[in-house]
Amino acid sequence: MSTNKLYKVLIAHTDVPPEGIEILKETCEVLQVTSEPPQNRAEILEKIKGVHAAIWGGRDILNAETLDAAGPQLKAVSTMSSGINNVDVPELKKRGIPLGSTPAMLTVAVADLTVGLLIAAARRFQEGRRKIDSDNWDKDHLDWMLGQDIRDSTVGFYGFGGIGQAVAKRLSGFDIDRVLYTTRNRVSEEIERKFKASKVDFDTLLAESDFLVIASPLNKDTQGLFNASAFNKMKKTAVLVNVGRGKIVNQDDLYEALKSKRIFAAGLDVMDPEPLPSKDKLLALDNVVVTPHVGYATRRTRIDAATLASQNVLRGLAGEPMPSPAY
Question: Which of 38, 97, 133, 160 lies in the 20 to 30 Å Cα band around 9?
Fold first, then answer.
């Protein structure tokens, strides 16, 4: 280790933006993996030996094996994401290691994409492109390719945290009528007034939403919640958008609801499984727009997330509270 560097930090991913980890280099020796998953597991286990902190990325799991390989001097870990599914949280807590994450850095990019999916699904972008590709552009009928209006609509949110509220903020410019939301806890009255939002039960959310945005985490209560029973309670003109987690939706039931026109359309940035196979039956439908989990895939967002993750580990190394703790 360089004599003027107090700590070693491992960047456990190949493509973390260098701008985001510059602040680490002032006081830390920075190590970075060079191989891609899943082959990089062996490299991670080797390079993590003796490090004091790690910025964790990718799908590889930070578990007891990894922590044992690092050694007892490991003092801080941060992800570069909102989720911490790739970290064995109980194991870190047991060892007293603080964990950071970066959800606030992802909010803007995910909200922007959510609005894009909502518009693309409502206005039939996928189907329209296929009409062009198959030389089926209809110039003779006024009722061809009619979509759903956002203006004066009721927009429902399953999950109304930072991302949900950022989406509502953007949609206010489209002159929507009102916002409904279903969450465990009510948001503040100030937020409700700002977005003309009302907390409702799940059945009311399903029945009254013209657009329904899923922006909640995956847990035992949310897994498979959007199933045939839920879709049967929705408007036939409803558009579903999922930017939460794929497993919140029963994808077979969604396929049937879309194929049978039980609901109008769907826009998905998350699905089950990921990656979604190119021959998946869902992709054969005209009324679904799918993006490959790229909600926070903008350069600025990546740099901001890396910077915050770096700040998390630096504060953790100093024994101070992280600016964005995961717990």
Answer: 38
pLDDT at 2 over 60: no
157: which strand partners?
181, 213
Dist. CA 289–CA 306, nearest whole Å: 29
Which residue bears the tokens 């013209």? 210
The verdict on whether 141 is a catalytic residue reads no
Q: Is 316 helix (H, G, I), strand (E, B) or coil?
A: helix
pTM, to two decimals: 0.90
Catalytic residue among 13, 52, 141, 293: 293
What stretches of the chain adopt beta strand conformation (E)?
7-12, 28-32, 53-56, 76-79, 99-100, 154-158, 178-182, 197-199, 211-214, 239-242, 265-268, 288-290
Cross-strand bridge partners of residue 211: 155, 239
At residue 17, what is the residue type?
A: P
Say how many C-beta atoms besides its own lie within 10 A of residue 56's C-beta: 26
Angle formed at CA 18 by CA 12 and CA 20, multiple of 5 degrees: 85
Residue 273's alpha-carbon distances to 72, 135, 247, 279, in angstroms, are: 36, 33, 8, 12
DSSP one-letter code for 78: E
pLDDT digits (tens, 9 = 90+) for 22-38: 999 999 999 999 988 77
Angstrom distance (rounded) from CA 256 to CA 174: 30
Q: How many CB atoms lie within 10 A of CB 177?
A: 12
Decide: residue 125, CB within 10 A, 0-12 exposed, 13-18 middle, 19+ buried.
middle
Q: Which pairing describes strands 197-199 and 154-158: parallel, antiparallel, or unpaired?
A: unpaired
**Tens digits of per-residue pLDDT, 253-300?**
999 999 999 999 999 999 999 999 999 999 999 999 999 999 999 999
3-state secondary structure of 41: helix
Vertex 28: Cα angle to 22 and 33 (nearest 5) = 75
Tokens of 298: 């903008």
**Residue 13 per-residue DSSP state:** S
